[in-house]
Amino acid sequence: MRGTRSIRGGAAALLAVALLAGCEDIGRGGAGPEPDPAAPAARGTSPLDNPDGTRAGLAALPKGRLAEARSLIEGLAVKGRGPKTGYDRDEFGYAWMDTADGVPLARNGCDTRNDLLRLHGRNVRFRDGSDCVVVSMDLHDPYTGKDIVWRKAKAAEVQIDHVVPLSYSWQLGAARWPEDKRRRLANDPLNLLPVDGRENSAKGDSGPASWLPPNKAIRCSYAVRFAQVADAYELPVTGADKQAMLRWCGG
Fold first, then answer.
1. Which of left, alpha, beta for 103 (phi over 0: left; psi -120 to 50: alpha)?
2. Helix residue ranges, H only, 36-106
3. Which of 84, 113, 171, 192 is the most buried (most CB within 10 A)?
4. Which residues pair with 140 in a beta bridge?
């Protein structure tokens, strides 16, 4: 993996301690740089200040960092999207496995979905007798800009989005990866965001040229997050997706 992943270990270890402690609200991880005064109030963390994906939320990128965003995107390799032949979700390990070594939060006794809910949620409540299974929380959904009051009884209202969809990665080269690398991609917090379930379903396995969050304020941030994942896993993107990402970051 590339240099962008080199600082991940320390942050991951500290976060794992907090999660295992069963805290009810990990919080938003700080606001990072001051947002542009003309932009909506930040509700999360700038992706450029969150190279591990271990800080909550996805905030709009300050204008002063657009050049940095474009530089990251410009460095991505380009390739045509191949066939979907042979793709199956199980090729990336069973859903929300806790044993995908090499990513933050692995082997902490809690599955990936619940890890992500308690990382990004606020006012988190757990099942009686558990410090893992989230039964309710409040979530600011970056894709729509709306606040969601979530209850496990209606679990599908919040889904965990793979920012770089697994099928997309398969078609761009993951079909030839070793299984442990695919498992990392599927369970890496850098590639995961809890979001409105309907928007996640609408996205499907689209790249940024075909789908972007309805909330225009975070489209560049989404593009940066997509690029961070592609960079970290040395995954190419399509030419159309690269151009779309650059366009939303002022390129």
1. beta
2. 66-74
3. 192
4. 147
